[in-house]
Amino acid sequence: MTKRERALRIAAMSALVFGLSCRDRAPSITSPRSPTRGPTFEFVDGAHGGNVHFYFLPPLVSSPTVTGTFDPNQAPVVVVCQLASTDCSSIKAQFSMTTGTGAQVVRVAPTDQLYLVNWDTGQCTTGPCTLTPGAVYRIRVLVAGTELGHADVQVVASQQEARNVNTGELFPLVDGRTVPVKFRIEVGAVFAALPPATDVSALVGGTAYELGPSGTTFAAPITVAVQYAPAGIPARMAERRLRLFTLVGGAWQLVPGSVVDPVTHTVSGTTSHFSTYGVLASASVSAGSFASCGTGTSARTVCWGDNIRGEVGANSTTGPDQCSSFPCSLTPTLVVNADTFVVLSVGGGHACGVTPPPVSAAQCWGASYFGQLGNGPSGGAQLCGVAGVTDLLPCSTTAVTVSGGLSFASVSTGANHTCGVTAAGAAYCWGSNAAGQLGDNAPGGPQQCGPAAGTFPCSMTPVPVAGGLSFASVTAGASYTCGLTTANVAYCWGENFGGQSGSRWIELRERDRRRVLHLRPDHRECRLLLGRELRGSVGRRDDDVRIKPGRCPWWTQFHGVERQRQR
Asked: pTM score > 0.70 for this model?
């Protein structure tokens, strides 16, 4: 069977979790005891009516005759449970390629073409233990949650009693001894037929996993978790970039929100229906106003485009190239001092990323004159621009860590501000607050920063978004921000001259000069710079400005009578 055909059909045992299936098979071997008492013993592998590409090996059985090709790229899990009739839910020991009961793990021996784990019967998942005399225990071998085969063993008191047991039906186990569990997995043991044109060559282990029955849907999303073997990761593919992909129309598409756990070598994501899945390294790219950045499957982050504010992150204020006499990068350039990013976002003149768990820190580079890098008063340690042509403004041409020690799940960069959401759903913003886009209910700050020509409200470090809401995501725009809560309710704050904040009718009137109107983040008070201040709530009329009930807009410049309809 070709690698293209290598996938795994996993039958659902629950609509709430992924886990998941066993082979439905009639017992092939029975106990020497009365069939009306105790459990039914089974020994299921390629030599005993089971998967023809999976075999138990001595000492559990005599050496089988094998003809297939050994597959060293799987990540099997061995589970030992106490058998009670047909129930095997009482797990006594469990082993994977990375962790296991009694500090034992599953190992692969390519030279001997087998997998093995030493089961110390005196150790259980809860610690030291003694197995029940006469009880039967089932050794199950699973890949990605589905069983390839199992063997039943019975606890006996001594080696003498072990010799009296019919070893053709079950393996006699002397309590307290260590049992070497050895087995062979061949190419084709993990199987399902995929469309002939399906390309699985880039998948980890060249393996796809098909959840079935096909077409099954769930009222609420379930979690899909797939364990992989690190040895199966293709060259130049970083483990921390692995994600869960699903097959759609013959192409592999990223499962949004899927994550990798390099410690347990598991990728997981959510789904509302059964499909075909694979583990693949994910590349990402983000395009900003003047530059673009991307993180490749090798986990390196590069940027290209305009570098006048250091947004390429190449540790240069003059290059590395020149575009119409301005610094730029014509080709992808490695970001200096940057970690691998699981999330990447490029804004107006800066970029930010989130490092992998468990740290999940935010790092930023580029323009910092509005505090958009979030690293405190130190801001950018350099000045970026072209002398005599543009202003020389604070920036950082290498990645700096956002202050506060926060762990972020996502980050989004706007024109001059940045926002992020923690794993707990708390939203934080930093940078320019001239239009209330930080949402911190502090229209005058909390600090002042900006180009040398003037200063504006800002925050140089992350401040929490007011309101106590739990967010699933936030998106920073030009001078406004929108967020989606975990209850799927959208909220916006900041600039509203185009109706971005989704409020009602307003009418502004200015008689003699241009002014700048700023939004307070709670949308309940507006302020006129270069003119008098409206301290009353929305609905109050002033000599120069009349505001109907609704949320306030923000206008960079307006003249005469302006009227705008908002959602």
From this structure: no
